[in-house]
Amino acid sequence: NVRAGTLERVLHVSDYAVLPAGVEHEMAVKGFGGCWALVTTSGPYSVTLSNGVSGSFAYTARATDNEGLATTSTPVNVFITSPVPANDIFENRFLLGGVAVATTGSNARATQEPGEPNHADKPGGKSVWWSWTAPGSGQVTLATTGSSFDTLLGVYTGSSISNLTLVASDDDSGGNSTSRAGFLAVVGGTYQIAVAGFSGGAG
User: What does the alpha-carbon distance between residue 97 and residue 75 come to, in Å, rounded to a whole number?
Assistant: First the structure.
């Protein structure tokens, strides 16, 4: 697997094309855009492809010598996947601060940890985590407004995945399969927030 937006694939021309010996070469790669792009004029003949999007792609390498003779490789099939979210596990939850907080994220390729509860008592998976410390006491409302998938929301206290105490949870109260939950926060209290996809949904 390779990752979108990071290191996706290094193609070595010598792996996929037979190069004429004893002459200078240049290498071009055909990929996302469907056209040839010159990537190097000196060995070693390799290229790092980056900033792609998720999906299946075929790449072809072509080497051309200084006499204009070209050799083209057979297509190399590459499947690019999105990276696992950094806040996939409880230990790596993102910290939130302030009174009115808005954040975005994705649970694509996220997981459900061993011992992690089913949020809103529904089958889920693919959860991501945040942590928020209340700057004051009062009623708090959390919502997954604008999410493109059916979300599950869980709010807890506790410092590890194995000792969480439920504070609030919700499945569909936000409308359009989004979640909305309220609770009474206590100043200085730290609340762990999980968003998951119903039945493994992701977005």
Answer: 49
Residues 121, 106, 190, 89: is their CA dihedral positive or negative?
positive
d(CA 108, CA 196): 10
Reference 110, options 144, 79, 143, 86; nearest CA is 86
**DSSP category for residue 105:** -
Beta strands in 24-178 (DSSP E): 25-30, 36-40, 46-49, 55-65, 70-72, 76-81, 94-96, 128-133, 138-143, 151-157, 165-170
Which pTM does this prediction carry?
0.65
Contact 47, 39 (CB under 8 A): yes
The two tokens of residue 91 are 């230990």
The single residue listed with the structure tokens 């190097």 is: 40
Half-sphere exposure of 186 (CA within 13 A, CB side): 5
The pLDDT tens digits of the residues spanning 87-104 come to 999 999 999 999 999 999
Residues near 166 by beta carbon (within 8 Å), at least 6 away in sequence: 117, 154, 155, 156
Distance CA 72, CA 66 (A): 15
